[in-house]
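Consider this record:
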Amino acid sequence: MRLWGKIIKNNKIIKNDTVPLEVKDNYQAGLKAAIAELCHRFDIEKPYWLNKNLNEYNRISKTAFNENNFIEDIDFDKFIIEELEDKNINKR
């Protein structure tokens, strides 16, 4: 699996990247590591999870963080994360 991160400003993706989501032993630890890597690549602080984010991510494997999830001011509108399944096109 992979985690796709997108930085949105004025309804446009200004940055996006994917990172591996390693969930073998501990899903939450893998998710935290993947989010930390995306934040490092985007040069943003790690967002705080609110109940809305937790419920949304548990329901649809996707959530959006906005200014309410960050202590510092942000220069974008949303940071969206979405879980993606790796697809092997050579499966037989």
Notes: The mean pLDDT is 92. Helices lie at 27-42, 51-60.
